[in-house]
């Protein structure tokens, strides 16, 4: 309320100043008139009077308001007058007004068509309480329970079958670490001989001082001097890429960076998605032909960064390149980020091929337009799902 009243006061003062009057009484009258324009009354007469005043603003086209019935029409007219008054208060000339686009809330379309059905008749995508199978020969796995001699799903997700073992992998869940996974995490705390790392799991992961390479790739026993210099290696807020070394009984994950391809990350963009949308592959480090590189973490953290010119890093991944990134590389990184967000909104599996297909389909559009729902649908439809069945999030086998 304070921000709205302040805007009305400044707008009323601007109106009076432009008309050559600084009378406080006139300011209050103009302020009351603006309140009438912003208000949406249920009374028909007052609504007609308000709409008559609202139509004086010319920020939105009249065709937009004709297509919106009832209260939506009033909201569009209110937004039109709001922008007109704001631009008038700033003194912007009427012939140089910037175009303002407003998007009203709309119902989200169903994405059920993106999830196929198996040939055996059982559904791959299940909700809590759905019957997976009535065959007593199957074994119960994670996300399932036995009820009335039937195997029933306890979470909403994708059915996975390994021989006679049936489990349901949740579509939205925390990361459950497995040995050998590639993860991207953020340092949250520096402790004695270890770092705490946020990896999108239920518990914070652990990176031991003895499980990492020293700067320069030096191999020796860790000394007390190394423990005192831990904050010089990695400090709070740093992003690192690592591999899962072990999983404890409580679900906590132990990491290691005993390779030059792991370590501290430099300049780039971090995108957080659901771990179930990241496809498991032999390698999760990809140098894309568009001029950027990407790390697809199994924990749902995706790191996009410009492709380095020199692959060999003598510092062991502890010296970050802080040189300014050229504008073309920043545009490529921004486009890749928006493409990943578009694929995630349509529940598509993320891996190098799907991201490249989406990147090529997005080239006719501007980077900022990739966030619009209609453009997202067009880009995703442009990806040929018939030739690449792995793109469907529910059919991926991990």
From TrEMBL:
Q: Does the UniProt entry include the keyword Cell inner membrane?
A: no
Q: Please provide the record's keywords in A-Z order.
A: Cytoplasm, Exosome, Nucleus, Phosphoprotein, RNA-binding, rRNA processing
Q: Which GO terms describe its molecular function?
A: RNA binding
Pinpoint the S1 motif domain residues: 180-258
Where does this one sit in the cell? Cytoplasm; Nucleus, Nucleolus
The family assignment reads: Belongs to the RRP4 family.
Protein name, entry field? Exosome complex component RRP4
Q: What taxonomic ancestry is recorded?
A: Eukaryota, Metazoa, Chordata, Craniata, Vertebrata
């Amino acid at each position: 309320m304070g921000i709205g009243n302040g805007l009305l006061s400044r707008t009323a003062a601007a109106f009076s100043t432009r008309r050559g009057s600084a009378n406080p009484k006139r300011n209050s009258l103009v302020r009351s008139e603006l309140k009438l324009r912003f208000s949406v009354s249920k009374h028909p007469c007052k609504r007609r009077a308000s709409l008559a005043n609202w139509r004086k603003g010319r920020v939105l086209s009249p065709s937009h308001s004709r297509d919106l019935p009832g209260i939506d029409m009033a909201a569009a007219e209110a937004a039109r007058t709001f922008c007109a008054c704001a631009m008038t208060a700033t003194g912007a000339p009427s012939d140089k007004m910037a175009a303002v686009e407003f998007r009203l809330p709309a119902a989200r379309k169903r994405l059920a068509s993106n999830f196929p059905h198996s040939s055996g008749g059982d559904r791959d995508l299940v909700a809590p309480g759905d019957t997976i199978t009535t065959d007593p020969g199957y074994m119960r796995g994670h996300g399932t329970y036995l009820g009335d001699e039937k195997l029933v799903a306890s979470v909403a997700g994708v059915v996975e079958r390994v021989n006679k073992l049936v489990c349901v992998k949740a579509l939205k869940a925390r990361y459950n670490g497995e040995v050998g996974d590639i993860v991207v995490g953020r340092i949250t705390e520096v402790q004695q001989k270890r770092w705490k790392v946020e990896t999108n799991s239920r518990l914070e992961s652990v990176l031991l001082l003895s499980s990492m390479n020293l700067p320069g790739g030096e191999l020796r026993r860790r000394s007390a001097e190394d423990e005192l210099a831990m904050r010089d290696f990695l400090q709070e807020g740093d992003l690192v890429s690592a591999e899962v070394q072990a999983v404890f009984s409580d679900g906590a994950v132990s990491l290691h960076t005993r390779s030059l391809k792991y370590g501290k990350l430099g300049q780039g963009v971090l995108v957080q998605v659901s771990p179930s949308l990241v496809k498991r592959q032999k390698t999760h480090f990809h140098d894309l032909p568009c001029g950027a590189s990407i790390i697809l973490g199994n924990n749902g953290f995706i790191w996009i960064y410009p492709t380095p010119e020199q692959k060999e890093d003598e510092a062991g991944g502890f010296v970050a390149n802080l040189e300014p990134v050229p504008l073309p590389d920043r545009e490529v990184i921004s486009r890749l980020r928006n493409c990943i967000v578009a694929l995630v909104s349509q529940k598509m599996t993320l891996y190098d091929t799907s991201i490249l297909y989406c990147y090529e389909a997005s080239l006719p559009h501007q980077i900022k337009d990739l966030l619009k729902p209609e453009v997202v649908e067009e880009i995703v439809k442009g990806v040929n799902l018939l030739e690449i069945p792995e793109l469907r999030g529910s059919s991926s086998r991990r």
